[in-house]
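Re: How this chain folds, sequence and tokenised backbone to follow
Notation: Tokens come from a learned vocabulary of local backbone shapes, not from coordinates.
Start of record: The labelled sequence and token lines come straight after this line.
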Amino acid sequence: MPFPIWREAFIQDADAELAASTHAQLSTEPLQPFRDKLDLTRFYALDLPKSYINATEDTAPERLADAIDAAGRD
């Protein structure tokens, strides 16, 4: 991921040194785990508390998607 995208979309509130050091630690991740459909039937049947956080002010995914589109990648 290019540093400007990392800086503006994911760590915009950090100082430049922290942003650079965390960017240096990024590594690629395979796409297949995101594509594989999981059968969560057994998970939902477990007697565990479940909750979902709806981050209404998170702009990182939108900015990243826009940057990927602009770069011509999918």
Q: What stands out?
A: The chain has five helices and no strands. The chain has a mean pLDDT of 84. Helices lie at 3-9, 16-24, 32-35, 41-45, 60-71. The two ends are 13 Å apart (CA to CA).
